[in-house]
Write a structure and sequence with these properties.
By secondary structure, the protein is α/β, with parallel strands linked by helices. It has ten helices and twelve strands. A five-stranded mixed beta sheet has the order 3-2-1-4-5, sandwiched between helices. Strands 10-9-8-11-12 form a five-stranded mixed beta sheet, with helices on both faces. A two-stranded antiparallel sheet has the order 6-7.
Length: 331
Amino acid sequence: MHFIAIETSCDETSVALFRNNTIVSHYVYSQIEAHKKYCGVVPEIASREHSKKIYELISKLKIKKLDAVGFTKGPGLKGSLLVGKIAALTLSRYFKTKIIGVNHLEGHLLSTEIEGKRVIKKLKFPLIALIVSGGHTELWYVKDYGVYSLIGKTRDDACGEAFDKVARILGLGYPGGPKIEKIAEKSKFSNIKFTVPYIKNSFEYSFSGIKTQIAYYVKGLKSITVAQKSEIAAAFQKSVFESLINKLDEAVKKFGVCNIVVCGGVSVNSFLRERLMDRFGNTGINIFLPDKEYTSDNAAMIGVAVLRRLDKGKYKNNIQIDSSLKISGWI
Ligand code: KG4
Ligand code: ZN
C-alpha cells in the first residue's frame, strides 16, 4: 500500500510518501523567510508560496504507484488549504485512488506515533490531548483513534500566538516561540512574576491578558536590556506553561485517564517538556510527546491520520475544505 500526504494549512508546504507504515520520503518547505518581515503569516503570500513550491516537492517524491491520497482539509488558511486540495485531487484522479481529507489538529495528535521513519501504534486510550500550536490551544478527550471530544480551548489567543506577540513586544523577531525559549534559558531564576492565567469551572484557556500585562510592563521601563528581556521571557514561559499544565491536570483527574498527549508547535519547547515531567513524571501517567522533528507542521503527521483511517476502513470522500474545521469523529 502506497499513499501520499499533503500539508498546506499555514506556512509550511509539506509532502510525504508512505509505504504501509514507513515514511519513504518526507519534505518540508518552511515559508518563514517570506513572512518574517511582517512578523506573522500573511495569507496571500502563504498561498502563493504553496502554489510555487508544491509541484517541486511532489516531483521529488518520484511517485510510481499510489493507492490513496490524503491532505489537510482544515482548519487553516483558505487559500493555502485550496492549493493542497487541488494537488491531492490531481494525484487521486491521475492514479485513480481514494482521497481522504484530514483535520490538521488530528495530525498533530497522531504525530506522537512517528518514531524515526516508522509509524508505531503506541498511543494508549482513553487519553487527554493538549494541542498547543500557533493557531490553536485545545484540550480533547480521546476515547480511541477517530473518537474525539473537544473539552476546552482558548477564549482568545492561542498559546503559540501569545509567544509570537510577546516576542514582538520584546523585539525578538519571528517566529517568537524559539526566540523566547532561547533567551529565557539565561534566566532560569527570574525575579519577575506574571499572573498564571486561570479560568474557573471550565477547561478554557486565555492568553491575551498575560500578553497585555507584559506590554504594560515593558512600557513602564525606560529602556530594556538583554538581561531584562531574558527575565521577562522566562517569567512569561513559566506562567503560560503553569496555566497549560494546571488545566491538563484537572482534565486528567476529572476524566480519570492515565494517558496524556501534548503536541503541536509549542510542544517542541524543552522547558514545557521539563515542567510536564515535574508534574506527571512520578504519577503513573503515560506522557506521549512527538519527536521534536515532528512538532511543527508537516505532512508525515497527516499521513499517520490517513494510515489509521485506512487501518480501520473508515473514511469517506469528504474533501470539502473548511478553514475553521472543528474536531469530530471519522464517520
Ligand atoms: O503547530 P505549528 O507549527 O503551526 C500551527 O499549526 O499553528 O505551531 C507554530 C507555533 C508558533 O506560534 C511558534 O511560535 C510556536 O509554535 N513555537 C514555539 C516554539 N517553537 C515554535 N513555542 C514555544 N517554544 C518553542 N520553542
Ligand atoms: Zn499545526
